C-alpha cells in the first residue's frame, strides 16, 4: 500500500516523540526553569502576554519553554488556553495616570511634572555583544539607584495639551466596548474594537504598517507625547459588596502620540491622538499600535483616503492576528492531493485542447 | 480527560455555535457569523469543522473523520484522536456506521443517509472572495443576490479556455438563493451536495462563519445552458478495487514517473476490495 496514505497515526506518534527529545536538548545541560524564563526573558514574556491577550507571566514563561522559544507558537498556546477560561466579569477601566512607572518619557516636552524616567531601556546601549554573558559569568551587579520602583506622581503629558484645547478631546463615551474574543468581528469596526484587535495584533505586522506611515503611506507625523511603562492596579466591582476592590496588578506599556491635524471647516487646527496600550514591557508594539490607530482614523478626522494599507481598517484588522495568519499560511503544508488532482486533470485537459487547436 | 468539558468546548460556547448552526439551517447557504474560539489546533487545520463537531456530538454518536477522503491521513488521525480524548465517543472508518462525519476536501462515495451529519472544514467560506476581497462588499452582494460578477468570471473562463476552469471549490447556488462555496471538494463531488438526505454543516473557524444545507436541499452548480456543469475525474479505474466511478488519487510509484490511480475514499475502496458493497 502507498506509504503516504497509510500510517498517518504511527507517523504522528513518532514525530511527537522526536519533538519531545529535540525539545529537551542534550540531557547533560540543565533544563530551563520557567522562573528563569519569566525573569530573565521578561520581554519575550511580555510579548506573549500581549499578543496572547492573557496576563500571566508564569504561564507565558511555560508557553515559551514548551514552544522552544517560538513566540508565535507560545502565543498560540496561551490563546488556546485562554479561550477555555470562564468569563467571570470585567474589571473597572485601569487608571494609567496612577501607574507606578518604571519608565516614562516624553518626546514633546523637555521637562514634565514627575520628570523623564528612562528606566530599564536598551535605547542608549551600544549594541556590542557582551561575551561575559556567554562565559556564564555574572555581570557585576550595579547598585540600585534607590529610585527604582518608587511611586512617582506622573500625570499624563497629553493632559497638559488637553487643558489648553490644543489637542482633540477624548471623552469617555461610557459605552461598554465590544469583546472581539466573544463576538465575531463586524466591519466597519469602531475605534474601541480596532484598538482591541491592534492590542493583540502581531508586533511585526504592526511595526511594518506603522513604519509605512512614517515613510509616506498615509503619513500622520507622530510625536511620542508620552510613553510609560509600569504597574497599574486592577479593580473590579463586586455586586455583592457594592464597591470595587483591588484584585491584582498588571504591567502595561502605554503610548500616546500627538499628531498633526490642519483643521477642517468645522474644527480649528489642533493636535490629534494615536493610542497604544499593551501588556508587559512592549514599547515597540505600543508605539506601532498608536501610529496605526491614528492612521485608521482618517475618515473620522475628515482626512484624505490615500489608499495606504495602514488606512484600510478591513485590511489591517483582517490580517493583523498572527495566530490566524500563521495557521492559514502553514495549513498549505497539509495534504491537498484531492484538489491538486482536480487541477492536474484540468491542466491536462486544457493543454490537450490547445494541442488539438494548433 | 476530566479537565475539559465533553467534546472540549464549554456548554456556553456550544450553545452559541448551535444557535449559529440552527440559523444556518434555517437560511440555507447563508454565512452566519459566529464567535469562533481559538482551538488547540491551528487555524487552517479544521477549527471550524472541529467546533461544529464539538457542538454537534452527543455521547451516543459514532464519529468518522476523513481528510482527502482517507481516514488515516495525518490530520484526520489527529482530529479523530482529539475527539476520542475529549469526548470519548466511538469512532469508525466505515461511512455507513458513522453518525457524524467530519471531512476535509471530500464527500464520501457511499451515499449518506438521513441519520447522518456531514461536517465540512472550510478555509474561505466566501465564494466571491477572490473576486471581491472586502467583506463589507461581499455581504452586500449576497444581500442583493448581486452575483453578476461570478457569472462574468465563469463566462470569461469559457471565452479563454473553452470551459469553466474551476476544478474544486466550484460555486453552487443553494435553494435558488445564496451562492455558496462548497469548501474545496473536487467538482466531482458537487452533485452529491444536491438533495442529500444528511444534514451538511460547514465551519470556517478563522473566518468565523458557519453555513448549512438542510436535508434534501436543492444545490445547483453554476453553469450556462450551452455549457452545462460536468463532474470530472481521472479517466481511469481504481488500481485496487477496480471502481470506475469513484474519485481517484494519482500516485507516483517510481523514479521514472510511473503512475497508478487509487480511490481517494479509502473506506469505499476497502469495502469494495473485500467484496462488500
Could you walk me through the main structural features you see in this protein, from its secondary elements to its overall organization?
The complex is a heterodimer of chains A (358) and B (277). Chain A has helices at residues 8-24, 34-40, 42-52, 57-66, 71-82, 131-134, 158-163, 191-199, 203-214, 283-296, 313-319, 322-330, 337-357, and strands spanning 100-105, 222-238, 243-259, 272-279. By secondary structure, chain A is of the alpha+beta class. A 4-stranded antiparallel β-sheet of chain A has the order 1-2-3-4. In chain A, helix 2 packs across helix 3, helix 2 crosses helix 4 (57-66) and helix 8 (191-199) packs antiparallel against helix 10. Mean pLDDT of chain A is 90; it is low at 1-5. Chain B is α/β, with parallel strands linked by helices. Chain B folds into 2 domains: 11-221, 3-Layer(aba) Sandwich (Rossmann fold), CATH 3.40.50.11310; 233-277, no CATH class. In chain B, the strands form 3 sheets. In chain B, strands 1-9-8-5-4-2-3 form a 7-stranded mixed β-sheet. A 3-stranded antiparallel β-sheet of chain B has the order 7-6-10. In chain B, strands 11-12 form a two-stranded antiparallel ribbon. In chain B, a hairpin with a 6-residue loop joins strand 11 and strand 12. Chain B is globular, with a radius of gyration of 19 Å. The chains are: A alpha+beta (358), B alpha/beta (277).
Essential attributes:
heterodimer; A: alpha+beta; 2 domains; four-stranded antiparallel β-sheet; 13 helices; disordered N terminus; B: 277 residues; alpha/beta; Rossmann fold; seven-stranded mixed β-sheet; 12 strands; 27% helix; globular; lyase (chain B); 4Fe-4S (chain B); 4 iron, 4 sulfur cluster binding (chain B); S-adenosyl-L-methionine (chain B); alpha-D-ribose 1-methylphosphonate 5-phosphate C-P-lyase activity (chain B)
What does the secondary structure layout of this molecule look like, with pairings?
The complex is a heterodimer of chains A (358) and B (277).
Chain A: H1 8-24, H2 34-40, H3 42-52, H4 57-66, H5 71-82, E1 100-105, H6 131-134, H7 158-163, H8 191-199, H9 203-214, E2 222-238, E3 243-259, E4 272-279, H10 283-296, H11 313-319, H12 322-330, H13 337-357
Chain B: H1 11-26, E1 32-33, H2 47-56, E2 62-67, H3 74-86, E3 90-91, E4 100-104, E5 117-121, H4 135-143, H5 148-161, E6 172-174, E7 178-180, H6 190-193, E8 199-204, E9 209-213, E10 219-221, E11 248-252, E12 259-263, H7 266-273
Parallel strand pairs in B: 2-3, 2-4, 4-5, 5-8
Antiparallel strand pairs in B: 1-9, 6-7, 6-10, 8-9, 11-12
Helix pairs in contact in B: 1-2
